[in-house]
Amino acid sequence: MAKRHVIVGGGTAGWNAITTIREIDRGDSEIVLVSAENPYSRMVLPYYLSKEIGEAHVFTASETRLEALGVETRFGRRAASLNPNDNKLILDDDEEIAYDDLLIATGSSAVRPQVPGADGANVHSFWTLDQAREVTASLKPGVRVAMVGAGFISFTILNALIKRGAELTVIEIAPRILPRMVDDTGAEIVQGWLEERGVKILAGAEITSIEDASGGGKILKLKAGADIEADLVIMATGIKTNLEWLEGSGVEMNGGVVINDHLRSSESNIYAAGDVAEGPERVGDGKAVHAIEPTAMQHGRVAGANMAGVDTAYEGSLLVNIVDVLDLEIASFGNWNDEEAEVIQDVKKDRPAYRKLLFKERRLVGAILLGRTRDIWATNDAGMLKGLIQSGCDLSEWKEHLRGNPFDIKRADLAVGAAGALLPETLLGRPSVPERDIAVQQ
Ligand SMILES: Cc1cc2nc3c(=O)[nH]c(=O)nc-3n(C[C@H](O)[C@H](O)[C@H](O)COP(=O)(O)OP(=O)(O)OC[C@H]3O[C@@H](n4cnc5c(N)ncnc54)[C@H](O)[C@@H]3O)c2cc1C
What we know:
Helix 1 packs parallel to helix 7. By secondary structure, the protein is an alpha/beta fold. The strands form seven sheets. A five-stranded parallel sheet has the order 3-2-1-7-19. Strands 9-16-10-11-12 form a five-stranded parallel sheet, with helices on one face. The longest helix has 16 residues, at 376-391. The protein contains eleven helices and 26 strands. Strand 13 (207-212) and strand 14 form a beta hairpin. Bound molecules: flavin-adenine dinucleotide (FAD). Residues 8-14, 34-37, 42-43, 45-46, 78-79, 105-108, 126-127, 153, 156-157, 242, 245, 274-276, 291-294, 296 line the site of flavin-adenine dinucleotide (FAD).
């Protein structure tokens, strides 16, 4: 009998697992995909908001494509519980699906602070396509938007809001903006850049309630300081992993489902991938939840390969956050906030440009990069810094040079051959096959 793989969650991780299984077995197994939403990419939602792409371009797989790949679907349905003793998944309508192996790829959801009015009219999250539709429909030039939260997700939609003509106020509870992406120096430069371009920023500000104003607007009350009036409130106040349905299953969970370097959970035929998984890190020996697109893609592919019977070990995920806001490139990599690392840093005096390099002995373990997008190094160096951290190349002969010239990363990169070290490395031990070329045998 054909092996049955059950994939729970049709986002980046789930979809990459499916294509990888089919790339390997060409249709020799059964695949059942259970997903609360049809497959799409959350990462492109900012471009949908800015109207650079239409809604059709958000989706990653149509029902026709899934059918052609021999995937049986249950869309609009949720996994309700898991019984590893009987190898059964139970859905929200009590349907039971038996599996030989199963992938947990249920991602994460947006969370809002527990303040009065946080669930009121004209208060939105921006995590799902439905939420993006609501915000997109409410935007018109001159709309006053209060964005609560100044983290990575908030910054991914900032360009789109400005482009659509919004008047933007950003409110952040932490003492600085981007608190989990850059340090104080970086945050100060970004804040200055945005304020010069008309974005109002309140850091260290706590919202106590969101009330209705006459005429359909909103009033945000703060613990200290004047009220903020807005037409639309966007809550970008963090995410939580979608783990509730696994309670009582016995699958080991911490911040996410704990997985090993083969993406297996504590149950050997249950895998986890993407935002919902806590897996090995590329830098160091620990495990972490890296809720970013590259990790979801890599996890999905490695889990898919193992589920299809090709023994594949994963090198671990690297935290990479890159965002361009109003033509300022902001990026951080790896252990950018490691307090025990040796730090080399510099700020340019004549323009907004900041570089921070974090070393553990001879290796680069983290970095922050800030610079105008039009300064060519800002974009080019992002790839090199990521490569140097990922490759773990020995930089001992270049450390002194970098201490005096932290912006001159190119010479060090070329000299130690980081690109050459990474070139032979492939996720699955072979070149990848374009998705369009993956087909089942008739
Ligand atoms: C606006 C925005 C911009 C972003 N920009 C970037 C970026 O620039 N760079 C970057 O690296 N990352 C970015 N991200 C994050 C990135 O999108 C996520 O890391 C990625 O989507 C994770 O993929 P995933 O497959 O793990 O989870 P998801 O894409 O969240 O997919 C999870 C799937 O599981 C389904 N599901 C959930 N619970 C259940 C259940 N109980 N039963 C059945 N199905 C369920 C969901 O409906 C969904 O289909 C962005 C995210 C957003 C929202």
